[in-house]
Design goal:
The chain has 472 residues and is an alpha+beta fold. Helices cover 49% and strands 20% of the residues. The chain has twelve helices and 14 strands. The longest helix is centred in the first third of the chain and has 58 residues. The radius of gyration is 47 Å and the shape is rod-shaped.
Amino acid sequence: MTGDHEGQRPAQSRPRRAPRRGLLTRLLPRRDARTAKERRTPSPARRRLGRLQWRLTLAYTLITLAGVGALSWLVVRTDARSWQSAEYEDLHRRAAVAVSLIYYTDAGIQLDGLYDDEATSAGAQVIVLQAHGGRLRRLFTSHGPGTAVEAGAVDRIAHRAMTHDGTVSTRARTGAGDPVFLLALPYYQDQSQKTAGAVVVVGDPGKGRAEHRRLVVAVLSGSGLLVLLSAATGYVLSGRSMRPAWEALDAQERLLADAAHELRTPVAVMRGSVDIADTDPGGLHSHLPRLRRATDRMTDVVDNILTRGRLQATDTFRPVPLRLDQLVEQVCEELPVSRHTVTAFLDASVATADPALVRIAVRNLLANALRHGRTPGDPQDRAEVDVMVRGTAVTVADRGAGVDPEELPGLLERFRSEGGGTGIGLSLVREVAAAHGGEVTVRRRPGGGSAFVLTLGPLQRSAGHRRAPRPS
């Protein structure tokens, strides 16, 4: 990195004592991520929200079903009445035409006009009956679909029409059990104007009934599809209306999971140190460094958890113009003294970001580099870390074993730690970058090691020169 930073002064190296890994470390419980079964099993709160969503969907579907059912019933009933009324109107028209074609001469009743007229020669069957000695005899029968109607039904409706002196309609059945419509209209003798008989028209409702059934099938099919569509729509809408509750629950569960997962180890360290010191009160001072490290680690965990809470609460995210190089310099100066080497190369630049969130992200990158980026073969197990600021990008490079860029998505997952880390540090860096419209990338460093790059979005202003932080 010497050729890339010519003319810059490296920051003073800060040695830091390496933590001892003794009996207490081996006695600590291993921190494992939640099992796959636990991740798949929803919490009671999630199950309650899921049931509420299904209840809302069911209510929406039932309301739609009631409305669509009532409308479908109205449409079917109206169509049934409509086509039946149309059938009877056609029967009445044919009967009226037949009555108008019947006339009398000196030779008696004449029916010759019935044979040539369309109303009596095609379609419904027309029957002309004449009263004769208290009985009815058929004078004319056209050829139609109702020829199998029993004679008694035809005679009865003809008698009723003659008795009431008006149009009479009813329903009957053929010998095969098929339904038919009957309509009777009386006719009169020309000279006496007395009722001489009746014209009965037999109509076949088969065609109209078939069309009505097709309409019923279409209405029911359309109603069913509409109800299914409304159910799907209700599920989506209820899900969207409950999205704030889901997000709040998810944020709460993540916060609780992070707290439970991350606080377990430092608390166990402190408890173990206290137990060991209790058995040897004279050697209490030897356990103080371990307690101090556990306290520092717990402080980092709490900061990370609170930062995640801020990221989940979008109303607390407040980006402002800030000097990114000065912020990174402050983070480097806050590192405790250790045996590791941290060198900063900073370009003066201004970025729009949330200072608290960026500070946590940079600190996590540095902690990750110091933990995993120790130089292979170094007798003192030291890490050599370079921190660079160029534009809105912060690069933290080490000389460790290196990270394959293809493994970065897995490293950015929560609870993914392979070296005693907090488990949420890098995932929090990714969330901070995403909140600022940026990203986290990694590349292999020439000569060995990895370089993590935190990008915070487009550059706002640059001073056009470089400087190194002042040595402490």
